[in-house]
Amino acid sequence: MAGKLRVHVDQEKCQGHARCKSLAPELFELDEYGNAHEAGDGTVPPGLEDKAWLAQSNCPEIAIEVTEE
Amino acid sequence: MSESASVAHEPERSLPEHPPVTDWVNDFDHTDPRWTENPFPIWEELRGASPVVHTQRFLGCYLPTTYEAVKAIAHDTEHFSSRRVVVRDERPEVQRNAAPPITSDPPEHKGAKQLLLPPFTPDAMKKLEPRVRAICNELIDDFIADGKCDAAVRYAKYIPVQTIAHMLGIPESDSDLFIHWIHQILELGIKDERQLQQAVQEMSAYFVDHIEARKQRPSDDLISTLMSAKDKNGQPLDDSHVLGSLRLLLIAGIDTTWSAIGSSLWHLAKTPSDRERLVKEPELMPSAVEELLRAYSPVTMAREVMKETTISGCPIKPGNMVLLSFPAANRDPAMFPDAEKVVLDRKENRHAAFGLGIHRCVGSNLARMEMTVALEEWLKRIPDFRLDPAGKVSWSEGTVRGPRQLPMLFPAKA
To answer: Which of B116, B117, B291 is the best substitution to test chain A (most A C-beta atoms within 10 A)?
Structure first.
């Protein structure tokens, strides 16, 4: 079985398209300007792995990293 | 407003002619009627020739044709300036505070943009959504009994204009005035500087009155928000900055979304399988909206080359403009498999309809919400519709593309 996933938003790259928040609201938060960061420490709860990959593959700025632990 | 004496006394200038294009690769022209009607095969031809093509028209202009080249330019604020964001026949002197932040470069850009972002977050849009739903239904009420309508003129056009008027706190009944100014600025203004200046002056005078009224009696709308905003040194914005940003919100917020809603309805009217699928599977709406944004991206931006550089192996020289075609990037098959097909449930879609880099559209969350609500309400009440074969679909000229006439037929309902 695959290990746990973790998501991370690169603050230098994020431009606030907010695609991640729309596709995986459980995994991302937006600040007052609409720029994204990972919720909590970025750990992806079981069952939300597909949403993590979906968010990653729809970010126009390639700002989301998904790592497997 | 009557034509002022200074305008009347200006000498007649001879504007460049736009002869029909015979060599797209070396002499492209985005105002050619064939580009206006159907740009997709032209982009494909140009992309096949080079990642960046050039024309001598418009005093010299490049067009990146691939996603990679468009992305590289959008991310490069060192060689490419946003001080001019429309490719036109003339290059009049650059105005300070033309329309910040869209016309701003670093380092001024960031502060100007941060002032505008909080009112346009997804959460802020959720609060606005009920008003937009009501606007859509009021518009549909007006024509649903007729069994036909021009969906561009009577539906798509008024949704963004009434919504932005609502946000700014200006009368929704002034909608036709705003639409007239925008037509002068974005379409006629490409070839006629005087029309553009006249519209900008009238628009500024209009907003000056609203700013003055709020100095007497502050309100909780977007005009007051901008008036009370502070820059990074804690100073209020000067009036020219407030005016520039108000002009931007009105100009950028209207015919862009009007175009996106119109193109989406056009696609669904001529593609029964997609229309029926979206009616049966409304949960597809979020990915469908993204795919329609990709396939029919309305907005092409511009940059001005400031320093010599190379993009995708092509030399780029100062003195030229760049037509930054996000719509062409979004049709690049190297980035999007089956790029020419509309796939409502496309899984991977990093489309650039709202731009890339620091100039990402401030109103992207607003536009998405308006498109979603406009399509949902239309499909709920008019699930079965088609293009009227007796009518003609016509498209806007210039750098915001969408249908301006969209005659539809549907079963009439009381």
So the answer is: B117
Cross-chain residue pair A57–B347, CB shorter than 8 Å: yes
Average pLDDT, chain B: 93
Whether B36 and B20 have beta carbons less than 8 Å apart is answered as no
Q: Whole domain around residue A36: which residue ranges?
A: 5-68
Q: Which CATH architecture has domain B33-409?
A: Orthogonal Bundle (1.10)
- Confidence class of residue B189 from pLDDT cuts 50, 70 and 90? confident
Distance CA B179, CA B146 (A): 25
In this structure, what token pair is assigned to residue B186? 């974005």
pTM of the model: 0.93
Could you give the ipTM of this predicted complex? 0.96
Please state the domain count of chain A: 1
Q: Assign residue A36 the CATH number of its domain.
A: 3.30.70.20
pLDDT in tens, B283-312: 999 999 999 999 999 999 999 999 999 999
Q: Please, are residues A55 and A24 in contact by the beta-carbon 8 Å criterion?
A: yes
